[in-house]
Give the backbone structure.
Amino acid sequence: MPSLEEVTKQLIEKALSETNNKKRSFLQSVELYVKLREIDLKKPENRFSLQVELPNFPPSKENKVAVITSGALLAQARKLNVPVISREDLESLAGNKKAARKLASQYDFFVSEVSLMPLVGKILGPFLGPKDRMPVAVAPNADITSIVERLKRSVLVRIKSQSTVSSFIGTEDMPVEKLNENAARIISALEQKIQDARRKIDKIVVKTTMGSPVRYKRKKGE
């Protein structure tokens, strides 16, 4: 049996081939799907959500990160050139579900002063919680530079009601090796959360946004 690294590399190559990936008028993303077997989702430890930083995140696709602050993190946020949401901004959304939902959907990740988390939970929690995108809580005097930079290059890896993980691993113009390194990082994250994760991988699929999926199915006994 080939190694998983060899399997994902072959899948990526095939997914990017002209046969499976016709030229489009836009830059397509490349997605990785991993289906696991022998996972008991009734056990809490088998249901999780991870922020996984990819080693080769394409700059053109970096996540939008916003900082929620009462003012203490304002200078850092401006230096990092990221949007700021103030206490007053949050309070103005109270009772306005439509506006709160819109704000929650504008950004991929949030960083918030820990003192504002109760307010965030009350106003944005109903929209961020189900998506596992509640803010990273930090102290008012924290250095958020590394946190923001990490979130810009991170993907969310989740197992909730189904034993399948789906994740962005890059764009079609990236070298196969770089895409494969990103795929390996996703599988490594699964190994950290699931015992004997490699053996429990049942199927791997790679596809571009509009391309045909390319599959690898593990044979019985492997």
